[in-house]
Amino acid sequence: MTPANIVGMAKVIGLDLVALTDHSSCKNLPAFDAAAKFYEMNVIYGMELTTMEEVHVLCYFSSLKDAMAFDRYVYEQLPPIENTPALFGNQIICDENDQICGHEKKLLISATMIPFDQVYDLTQQYHGIMVPAHINKPTTSLLANLGFVPADSRFSCAEVKDLSTWPALQEQYPYLKNCNVLSSSDAHDLNSLREPLCFLEPEDTSPEAILQCIQRRPH
Question: Minimal CA–CA distance to 131: which of 144, 119, 140, 139?
């Protein structure tokens, strides 16, 4: 799952758009961006943030600059716990040729000091959007870890693995009736990348238009 391989596989299976959302890090995004330009692939820049409550939230940005600034902020909110490669694997950083150019020493799956109720404003500061990830997963999700959708929530899109669960979730949690839904591959290996089954219809293919499409509330 090196950056150029991800973009290359996405191109092979016919995707128009791909996002890279490493846990609590954007350090592989420069290589990802270079590969996207080579393959002429549309991308959005992302991170899968782990909040203080251990809720996973997809954070998407329209520019590499904003994503890397967000990365620097999140890095300071991670606890000073070092990764143990024998337990969690190597946290590699690649260059544009998929060559390893560094290793991240902090354990990136740790919960940050960022509470869920601050993520919306935080991503907005970096011209990004938030999308609660795998919202009905039995662990590390909004509904599993908090048990409800906070009344002061402002997100307008959520992600689920199985789209067939979405209508029941909307009935159980009325807030979701005013939200869009993403069903991504959430791939952790190249073979798990899905062929194009779900579609977005942005005004154009710019990252800004794609983010606007994702967060635009349904009619």
Answer: 119
Q: What is the pTM of this model?
A: 0.96
- 3-state SS, one letter per residue, for the chain: CCHHHHHHHHHHCCCCEEEECCECCCCCHHHHHHHHHHHCCEEEEEEEEECCCCCEEEEEECCHHHHHHHHHHHHHCCCCCECCHHHHCCCEEECCCCCEEEECCECCCCCCCCCHHHHHHHHHHCCEEEEECCCCCCCCCHHHHCCCCCCCCCCCEEECCCHHHHHHHHHHCHHHHHCEEECCCCCCCHHHCCCCCCCCCCCCCCHHHHHHHHHCCCC
pLDDT, tens only, 56-106:
999 999 999 999 999 999 999 999 999 999 999 999 999 989 999 999 999
